[in-house]
Amino acid sequence: MNRPTISLRIAGTLAFLFFAPMAYAGDLGQPQNEPVLTVTGSIGNTNEGELAAFDMQMLKELPATTFETTTIWTTGKSRFTGVAIDDLFEALDAKGDTINAIALNDYAVELPVSDAVEGGPIIAYELDGKPMSVRDKGPLWIVYPYDSNADYRTEQVYSRSVWQLNRLEVE
């Protein structure tokens, strides 16, 4: 192999390593159905102008987290499945200190980004293996694993447990 060929291969490899993450980073895809969640603010990955819109299928394509916990709104232990907020933020390249979570009825609450940790809250789209209707706190509900940590069993955290969630604003 001559020197120009080696140099071209090295340059090609370096270009791939540099540009491939950027190409992937912004590839959230496009909603094929009605969006159930929009995220705006300090996010690096968008799919509709300056926001990220997710239909249910797109949320289900992100890593899923399932846990069982009791809540003050349900009877007995319930099994919730959804996307962990930290996984969603990684997919969005989200930066900020505060998350404004807003429901269909415009109920809004601030969550600290520090809540978005492994083993923390999820944006649940299933309750006991079934999708949640708007009538039953769905289609999305921010749920903390209340039983796993006493810090999650406070009035402040309960107020952050937004059901009928449809928007997040990252600041």
From TrEMBL:
Gene3D superfamilies in alphabetical order: Oxidoreductase, molybdopterin-binding domain
Signal sequence segment: 1-25
Keyword entries, A-Z: Signal
Residues passing through the membrane, by range: none
Domain Oxidoreductase molybdopterin-binding: 73-145
Matching InterPro entries: OxRdtase_Mopterin-bd_dom (IPR000572), OxRdtase_Mopterin-bd_sf (IPR036374)
Descriptive protein name: Oxidoreductase
Organism: Notoacmeibacter ruber
Source lineage: Bacteria, Pseudomonadati, Pseudomonadota, Alphaproteobacteria, Hyphomicrobiales
